[in-house]
TrEMBL record:
Residues 295-321 are annotated as: Disordered. It comes from the Eukaryota. Residues 440-531 form the Cwf19-like protein C-terminal domain. CDD domains: MPP_CWF19_N. InterPro entries: Cwf19-like, Cwf19-like_C_dom-1, Cwf19-like_C_dom-2, HIT-like_sf. The gene is Cwf19l1. Belongs to the CWF19 family. This is CWF19-like protein 1. Residues 314-422 form the Cwf19-like C-terminal domain. It comes from Callaeas wilsoni. One of its GO terms (biological process) is mRNA splicing, via spliceosome.
Length: 535
């Protein structure tokens, strides 16, 4: 088994010579360590002169060093790329939030900054959305048990509950509730924090309820003081760790003699109480609404019957929904302002809270759950809509990205989002999806361009797939949990549209008059490409 030897340190505050000198001395005495993990403030107000020597390569860190981002406005300029980057040789900024997985299999979750006190959160802060997305990225992975290490700058609020004293630090007032929530969910084996200029090694706490849950590993929380402090408080912590993935399960869950109750027990109970039944993870019904707007003036029904029932007599009828469906066009639940085109078997509608004003959905008029369930006539019209949208978006200097999530959804929704051609290539788009999938341990596979999804997924199989307007496709067979907004997160990320604030549709929903105006504008622009007005 690969035993990793790590060092963790508290606020460096620009004292690079002090910390790296100490690391050299420890390595000379105790042998080589694999990496140094830095929490708290790495840079300080007087960092520039010392930092310049490392940034220019005149000096080099003696060990691969990984650090969290800024905790205040003054040091933001040291971090040029919010998503993480190499700052100097052997010195890497991990990023705003995420998971770092080394070649040994060790999983390190990290969250940069301090908890935001205002909205929108400043660049050096995190909010509830950041924590929710980091949790979702890990909790959605099959058989998730926890992470090996969690790095945050603030302490978790209430970490001292059921524990040994934290000295002068009042853990009921100090730190962040969001970090407590994160630690309670991610169940790290080690959690490091700083900022309070204090050293505190809490007694290990359990991550399960005795006699109610299967035993799980314990968490060790360690807060570190500032480097070179005059009180000689501990700021550097050495430890050896075998990745959880390589450990014998029985050894992993061994409980030490001094283990305590979980300090976030109350938080966990509150979260458990508020958890809805599994089916409640269905997309909220209000996410997308469509319109049977009378303004389809030039359109005529294909054979004089009502549009919603205009399929040829020989066409196989789609199954009926078991309850109210917000997407079946004939449903009384359907609202009336976002439909932009109605064909014989499918219709097109703007997305409510779309990533952009021209984010559209292709939907079957009848009730079908997924692409693999579609009859040949419906599938043929879906293909015609894709071709029309490709031509339309290309005329505006854009390419579309389409995705479907057949998981916790009742009615097929093909999300179609345009991306400017000069912003990224089709390879960039694929790489962004694959990289994010790998980070979340989702196996996203490229499948042949001209293959049909029905060839790789049987009806009733949960899956997620992405399709570019070039015909290139990525496919994931969902076997466990899956983040509901995965496709949207990737497209909103810095790697693509760079609009992370639009990752949650709820933050983007406009008022009804504005939505109706957007639909009218789209309908007008799309008209020359809309085959349904000519067929």
């Amino acid at each position: 088994r690969a035993v990793s030897r790590r060092l963790a340190c508290g606020d460096v505050e620009g004292r690079l010579e002090a910390i790296f000198g100490r690391v050299r001395a420890i390595q000379a005495k105790s042998g080589r360590f694999d990496m140094l993990l830095c929490v708290g403030n790495f840079f300080g107000s007087t960092s520039e002169a010392e930092w310049a020597e490392y940034r220019t390569g005149a000096k080099k860190a003696p060990i691969p060093t990984y650090l969290l981002g800024a905790n205040n406005q003054d040091t933001l300029s040291y971090f040029p790329d919010v998503s993480g980057c190499e700052l100097a040789e052997n010195i890497t900024y991990l990023g705003r939030r995420g998971v770092y997985s080394g070649c040994s299999g060790l999983q390190i979750a990290y969250l940069s900054g301090t908890e935001a006190q205002e909205q929108p959160a400043p660049a050096h802060s995190f909010g509830a959305k950041d924590v929710a997305e980091l949790k979702a990225s890990l909790l959605s992975t099959p058989n998730f048990r926890g992470v090996d290490i969690l790095l945050t700058s603030p302490w978790p609020r209430d970490v001292g509950t059921f524990a040994n004293s934290a000295g002068e630090i009042d853990t009921k007032k100090c730190g962040s509730k969001l970090v407590s929530d994160l630690a309670a969910s991610l169940k790290p084996r080690y959690h490091f924090a700083a900022l309070e200029k204090a050293y505190y090694e809490r007694l290990p706490y359990r991550n399960h309820m005795v006699l109610q849950e299967t035993p799980q590993h314990v968490t060790r929380f360690i807060a570190l003081a500032d480097v070179g402090n005059t009180s000689k408080k501990k700021y550097l912590y050495a430890f050896s760790i075998v990745p959880m993935s390589s450990m014998d399960p029985a050894e992993l869950v061994k409980q030490p003699q001094d283990v305590t109750e979980n300090p976030y027990r109350k938080l966990r109970k509150e979260a458990a109480k508020s958890k809805a039944p599994l089916c409640a993870e269905e997309e909220p019904a209000c996410q997308f609404f469509f319109d049977l707007n009378k303004h389809q003036g030039k359109k005529r029904p294909s054979d004089g019957r009502e549009r919603g029932d205009s399929q040829p007599k020989q066409a196989k009828k789609p199954p009926q929904p078991t309850g109210p469906c917000w997407f079946c066009l004939a449903s009384p639940e359907v609202e009336k302002h976002l439909v932009v085109s109605i064909g014989t078997h499918c219709y097109l509608a703007l997305a409510k809270g779309g990533l952009s004003p021209d984010h559209v959905l292709i939907l079957p008029i009848g009730h079908y759950q997924s692409v693999v369930d579609l009859s040949s006539e419906v599938l043929e019209e879906v293909t015609k809509y894709k071709a029309a949208l490709k031509e339309f978006f290309r005329s505006k200097g854009k390419r579309y990205v389409l995705f479907e999530r057949n998981y916790r959804s009742q009615h097929l929704q093909l999300q179609v989002i345009p991306v400017p051609l000069d912003l990224c290539t089709s390879e960039d788009i694929k790489e962004a999806f694959i990289a994010q999938a790998q980070e979340q341990q989702i196996e996203l596979l490229e499948i042949p361009e001209h293959s049909d999804i029905a060839q790789v997924a049987q009806p009733g199989t949960p899956y997620f797939y992405v399709e570019l307007d070039t015909g290139e496709k990525l496919f994931h067979r969902i076997r466990g949990r899956f983040p509901l907004q995965f496709g949207r997160w990737v497209l909103a990320s810095e790697a693509l549209l760079a609009q992370p604030q639009r990752a949650d549709w709820r933050q983007c929903a406009a008022q009804r008059p504005e939505e109706a105006a957007q639909a009218r504008a789209f309908r007008r622009e799309f008209e020359p490409f809309d085959f349904s007005l000519r067929d």
